[in-house]
Amino acid sequence: MSNIEQTLSIIKPDAMERNLDGEIKLMFEKDGFKIVKGKKIKLAKSEAEEFYKVHETKPFYNDLCEYLSSSPIMVMILEKENAVLANRKLMGATNPKDAEEGTIREKFGISIDKNSVHGSDSVDNAKIEISFFFKN
Ligand code: UDP
Ligand code: MG
Questions:
Q1: pLDDT value at position 118?
Q2: Is the pLDDT at 136 greater than 80, yes or no?
């Protein structure tokens, strides 16, 4: 049975600032993802706080929201079979030091906070995150 899903991907400021968005999009496409929609935007800090609300009690929350709103990001809807899990696999572990070889974070991540990409962690959160950025 086929299980086509959509997930939300963000190319974060550290990667955008190094002009890695083209290379990262190619990695998605080579892995079989279709980039259904994409746009470059700059978030206000309040929008980053809303997006990352699940982390509001974490010690890194304020820095994370400052960072995500510090310069432009690329937000994309990615689609393929089991897209949510497939994207998490292609991204690699949150800390680039622990990310498997060939993953986006292993190749491009600088540190646990500047780890180049975001990806939804469940199908339910993918729906919430997609509607956050693509309201139609
Ligand atoms: N993060 C951080 N310090 C930490 C853990 C996470 O700065 O100790 C940042 C990092 O940018 C990460 C984001 O917070 O991507 C969200 O954390 P999460 O645990 O959801 O990781 P992800 O789902 O992005 O792998
Ligand atoms: Mg997460």
A1: 98
A2: no
Q: Does the annotation count 55 as an active-site position?
A: no
pLDDT at 70: 98
Per-position DSSP letters for 43-96, written without gaps between them:
--HHHHHHHTGGGTTSTTHHHHHHHHTSS-EEEEEEEEETHHHHHHHHH--SSG
32 CA → ligand 2 middle, Å: 22
Is ligand 1 within 6 A of the CB of residue 113?
Answer: yes
In a domain, 87, yes or no: no
Residues in the chain, overall count = 136
- Closest ligand by atom to 60 CA: 1
Q: Does 94 sit in the ligand 1 pocket, CB within 6 Å?
A: yes
Q: Across-strand partners of 38? A: 76
Give which of 30, 37, 67 is closest to 52, Cα–Cα.
Answer: 67
CATH of the domain at 30: 3.30.70.141
- Can you give the residue range of the structural domain that contains 122? 4-82+117-133
99, part of any domain = no
Assigned domain for 112 exists: no
